Amino acid sequence: MSSFDAPEWLRHSDSYSPGADADRFISKSIRAFLRVLSGLERRPEPKGRTPQPALFLTADFILLLLISLTQSRGFLFLAATIELVIISAQRPAAIAESLKAGAVAAVFTVVIFLPSAFWGAFSDWGSFLRVPFKVFLCAAAAALVPATLDWPRISLGLSSLHIPDIFILVLDLSVKYIYLLGQLALEMLYALRLRSVGRNSGKTATLGAVAGSLFLKSREASVETYEAMECRGFSGSYHSRRHWRPAAMDFAASAFIIGIIAAYIFFRGRS
Amino acid sequence: MHIPDNYLSPSTCAVMGAAMLPVWGLAIRHVKQEISKAKLPLLGIGAAFSFLVMMFNVPLPGGTTGHAVGGTLIAVLLGPWSAALAVSVALLIQALLFGDGGILAFGANCFNMAFVLPFVGCYMYKLIAGKAAGSGKGRDYAALALGSYSGINVAALCAAVEFGIQPALFHDAAGQPLYCPYPLPVSIPAMLIPHLLVAGVVEALFTVAIVAFLRRVEPAAGVHAAEIKTKPIFILMAVLIALTPLGLLASGTAWGEWGADEIGAVESGGRALGYVPSGMEHGFDFRALMPDYSVNGLPDAVGYILSAVAGAAILVIVFKLIALAKQDRTGRAPAV
Fold it and tell me: Is residue A253 part of a domain?
């Protein structure tokens, strides 16, 4: 067998080393897209461990509203305790998510409010920390919704709260397409990074092209979605008026709503 | 610019939410009229697009990056009413799923980013571009850049005003702020300086880059923001000018009115009554940096209105001069 004669240029190794190029904005964009995609891929609680979505959303909203309204430290500590109990009943991943959201928001608030403390806008640490503490409670409570409910259940909850169908249709479509278009954008960003060997001065301009392609793609997708809707006879209205039997968690959520409002009224005007 | 919960009082949030209700109602009506049923999915997919636009990090001089909001872009691509709906939905998903922006503050965030931003941006674009809108000429792109730049900055100003009225309107009996502690003279420069210097530039760069790409690749993409009338912008400007002394009136009356019904809390709180934060008077004096909007010998409110009228007039003059310069250049030397 005669040996294969490779051409001269193929036989010696290349000494090409690409010049350094900054592409931090691509990495940051990729990270932002990954955060969104992984956020939408969350695994929710199994059914039965959470109350009906509508009750869950109502309870969460009332808790946020009362925490924000109250000026009583007593009520704030009561609400914090109840919230911690609720959080502690979740699975570990949801606990971490909820506490992390609260902690990040609270630390951010402390940093934002520090200059005002040096000015003397607050007379003691207690009143300085009031807002960051409320921010912690609210952010943690708000983060419980995505940590325990998946999107279909959130949109079911919204529809039983009599939010107009057009809103829910738009919301549903958005969430699905954030995922689809997000993946598309991610692929284009990876391609942009892979193809930018060495210095690529046109990279910044390409970012506009990536987003522009995304827009063209989304218009195409909207036409296709409409055709698919028409084919399947879906007019965009939701019929989810199923009868449900209240479960133990639903009674617990109702008791929570009544109890927290009663506590708010009780603590009103007290310090 | 995403306002978290507890930075604004619940009553401010309620007012902003109430202000958004007619906007949403009108938006749905306009969209139903303008957009055929076949384009209904475009709303949801437009919302997905506007959500994703906020994920792009744009490189800035100096090695940093910033992300755009894209409100003006969506308004120019889909029309301002569709943009109002699309950005609202994007904001709702951010608040519900990602914790960006508060749930109670949703109305306020929508007011700033889904109403003020796209409308100001879009009308400003139309106003400056004039007949050049959609032509792809230099004036058209300059109008896009200026439109998106002013859109995001006016939105930031609205957020700053919402923050700034909190300490005057909502404080406990000891005068300590219950929500955002920064008054208008602090919140306005704190919000506006980064937006004027960084975020506005990012927004303008990104908007122009995308529109330029779309015009090159698919000229029929409908990048012209048709059916926009410029008359409402003048009415809006007049209303805004008339409303400028509102902050002044609010801070003037609030202390007396709000102090009275909170006296009960003083007695039980029992601390720091009548405390005057000396740091506030002797700390940073922003009035040295910011011009004092009062005119000698006139009531403050009149001074405010006059400053607002003068400011608006200066803006109109600047834009007209820019338009004139553009006209001259295109008149003498035809487009290259």
Answer: yes
